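Lab notebook: predicted structure, single chain.

Context: the supervisor wants predicted structures on file for every construct in the current expression panel, including those that have not yet been purified. This is the next one on the list. No modifications to the sequence; it matches the entry in the shared construct table.
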Amino acid sequence: MSNTQRHTCPAVRTAMFPHDMNGSGRIFGGVILSHIDIAGWATCRKVCSHRFVTVFFKSVEFKKPVFVNDILTCWAEVTKIGRTSVSTHIWVEVERDGQFIPVTEGEAIYVAVDDDDKPLVVETALTEYGKSLLRKQRRAEAKAKAQAARAGQPSDDGEKGSDGATTGDAQASGSASGVHPERDTDGSGAATVKTSGSSRKAKRRRQKGSCDC
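Prediction complete. Output recorded below exactly as produced.
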């Protein structure tokens, strides 16, 4: 977590109490998970005014233990806005003796739902903050798509055809199937295989009633 993120408003900040302990005297992991869940949900609400439900914890890493009297702080950010879902990343730190100590990190996905718990389209209720995030996300996606297109230019290994296969791939495919890779068209645009000289001679012998066998 960067210092810039730490200076933003945290999604959750709370003290740890004795009733949050597990049998080993440390804070129960489920308590931390509940705060992660709330932090992700609160961040979704900054993006869209729909009601959100948790559908998936993609990953959660417990790095260090948390103790009673630690001040638990959760920061969260939106990593992706989908059609009906919002993905988030959450960092958890504790403040102990004037120091910030990273203790947990995770990713969670939430879905916007109506009163019947049916999915809703996120874009129908985006906040101004959500709209700005979505514009930024789409610019990044367009940039990545353009870079991928440039990276897909034909290489020295062979020239790519319209189906994305290289000339070498086509030749290998033709050889494996017993078809000569050289092709011609019959005027209609359909490919016709050129026959070899020996094949034409065999055809003429069959027409005359002779046999090669």
